[in-house]
Amino acid sequence: MDVVTDNIFSIQLALGVKALLNLSVIGLNWQYMHKSFMGYFCISLAFLDLVHIVNFSVIYWLTNFAILGFHITIYHIYLFLQISTHTYRQLALGVKALLNLSVIGLNWQYMHKSFMGYFCISLAFLDLVHIVNFSVIYWLTNFAILGFHITIYHIYLFLQISTHTYSILHWPVFIIAGLDSYWTFPFRPLSLTRKAVYAASLALVWISAIMYVFFISDYDSEDSFSTMEHHSFLLKSQCASLSLVVLAVITCVVLYCRSGFLSLFKSFRGGSYIEGSTSVFFYNLDLNEGYFKKPILTYIAVCFIGTWFPFVCLQLIILVFSTEVDPFLELNVPWLCFLNSFLIGAVYWHLNQDIVVLKQCEIPDGFCNWVFSPNPDCIKKASPDTTSVTVALIITP
User: Stretch 298-318: mean pLDDT, rounded?
Assistant: First the structure.
């Protein structure tokens, strides 16, 4: 009984901290909170969390009482918490599905031109199927289809299978997308053959992942009962290791191109300016460093980091504080688009393609603008005696 009491007290303390944090943020930003749907949702969430902490406190301290003939016990704390967990998890899955569809819709012209785009579309479709299935099972609670009995247990079963599957897909998708970018660079319009190859690759990736979960991994469907009791779906995902590798590469690039970055940072106090969503930076380019070394790598690094800086900071925070994220939520379209931009930049620098060629390509990236001007190699050929030149770096989303 002491263990149960301590557990309830820990839950109550965590909910209290969350409710206090919600109210503090809303109070400090009240002038903005009532001006959008997100603000209204934040207010409703804070109100519900406050109701929860009050209900749990009353039930916990009174322990055993009756209201209008309805007997209230400490069991109802777990019942209310279970209902809240179901609802919040369903909301999280719905928000993820909506986010995936929004990103794909805004970048549709780029999504169907690469393997990564095809995988993003398939992921968004499967997430949408999941949220529909989970909602139907959750609200109908107990029903039968073709003689097969469906209960709320199957939500946990399907979610656990999806979690195991998603947790092992980060590195395979990253490697296949990297090979696709390498083999198809410079990018050209998608042919029917490549579409067939992408479709076959998608089927192979998903089938292989599911087969691995059922026949090779330590997955056990009977563990879904224990998972259902503890509400935990946290597994060791590949996302952390992949994120660590990407951040390590970005750090090495920044250190290697530190002279170019220092010149760029100095330009903030110079004639650089920002107009709308377009940023223009003027800085001195040392042509003696060579086209095959720092100048073009500096272009690529600034373009990538300038576009994805908030996402890079988010990944850094997750790694530094060892934040646990459900693998089902970790594999999402924004994360895959981030990896896609990283791969395109890496492949472009590795192959040392002429910048003029990129202007005629259909680059499958809706976030980074990979068209740079001027070309350091062309400047060096046009003016052999020139050792440095002032260039303009334009960043547009």
Answer: 88
